[in-house]
Amino acid sequence: MKRNAFAYLTALLILTACFGKSGDEAGNAEGRLVSRPQVNEVEVITLQRQDFSRQIRSNGKLSASSRAALAFGTSGEIGEIAVRNGRLVSRGSVLARLVRPDLELALERARVSLERSRWDLYDRLAGMGYAAGDTLTPPAEVLSLAKSRCGYDVAELAVRQARQDLEGTVLRAPFDGRVADLKQKVHDRTTGPFCTLVDDRRFEVDFAITEREYSFVKAGQAVRVEPFASGGSVFTGRVEDINPLVDEHGQISVRASVSNTGGLLEGMNVKVLIEQTVPGQLVVPRSAVVVRDNMDVLFVLTPQGRARWTYVHIVAENSTSYSVEANTDRGAELKEGDRVIVSGNLNLADESEVTVKP
């Protein structure tokens, strides 16, 4: 009895092993295991030609439209500083002064010498029969000779030189701008540039584009500029000039100007975006394109429910989509009305069986 029970249990286990498998494995008529193919769930879109917002992205650096390192016209001790870093000043404003009493005395000495020469000139003209102090009646050649003999011309030049030297002790703003790089203090001796003046109302941004993007960028075209550290602030500008040369890296230099409505700084690193509408493009989400064999590929859904491997070229791109065309060099075909797989395609192979998600 025990032996019959043992035999019955063994037979039951064998039957369970043969007919109780699930998933991808099951027994066939000969008792062999077979593999059921995996079916991938995907999402698809239908290709249509449409306007595509092409975006050219690059990185650049801001530089002020006007920028100057300012220095005194002479050396000496700083006696007054009228500004500080970040101060906005207008053209002609006094930024700082030097203490140079010797130059003040030199100007006064030159003025006294000029005055003495003037009286000598009047005496000479009076000796020629002209009225005292009359410098209008004498002919030009007579007046010039009289000035030369009394040293009037030299004395006049000495005054101009002394006045210029004294003006060099006063530093003025050559244009409207903001003060930067001010490090010196009162009583310091002047050493090199005193400060930098930056006109930050308008900036220039230099960036690079590729040869393929060259035909899409024109002078006067609108650009958007976003500082890396701005927290989402965007500034608008326009392309000013394009350098018609390609460098050793295959890039072309472009310069744009942008108005500073607040927040831009000299030397700031920024992202540059140029947008252009291109009509009649085959547009797919970025997720539709995958890389196979180091080439761009997308999968087209066949009527038989399989994924057809299709090589493509990316014509243009933006933050969400690609404009694509068939890579005919690889024998690919792509047309309006094709159903393109846009998700679930990361692990697909050519002719993979797929099922479309509802």
Helix content bin: 10-25%
**Uncertain stretches of 5 or more adjacent residues:** 11-36
Sequence of strands across the biggest β-sheet: 4-10-13-12-11-14
* Gyration radius, in Å: 42 Å
Q: Based on Cα principal axes, name the global outline.
A: elongated
Number of domains: 4
Please count the helical segments: 4
So what's the oligomer here? single chain
Distance between the termini: 58 Å
- Beta content comes to 35-45%
Largest beta-sheet characterization:
6 strands, antiparallel, barrel
Q: What is the N-to-C order of secondary-structure elements (H for helix, E for strand)?
A: HEEEEEEEHHHEEEEEEEEEEEEE
Summed over residues and divided by their number, the pLDDT gives a mean of: 87
Description:
The chain is an alpha+beta fold and 358 residues long. The protein has 4 domains: 34 residues, no CATH class; 87 residues, conserved putative lor/sdh protein from methanococcus maripaludis s2 fold, CATH 2.40.420.20; 91 residues, Beta Barrel (Elongation Factor Tu (Ef-tu), domain 3), CATH 2.40.30; 120 residues, no CATH class. The strands form 3 sheets. It has a 6-stranded antiparallel barrel with strand order 4-10-13-12-11-14. The chain has a 3-stranded antiparallel sheet with strand order 5-7-8, with no helix packed on it. Strands 1-2 form a two-stranded antiparallel sheet. Strand 11 and strand 12 form a beta hairpin. It starts with a helix and ends with a strand.
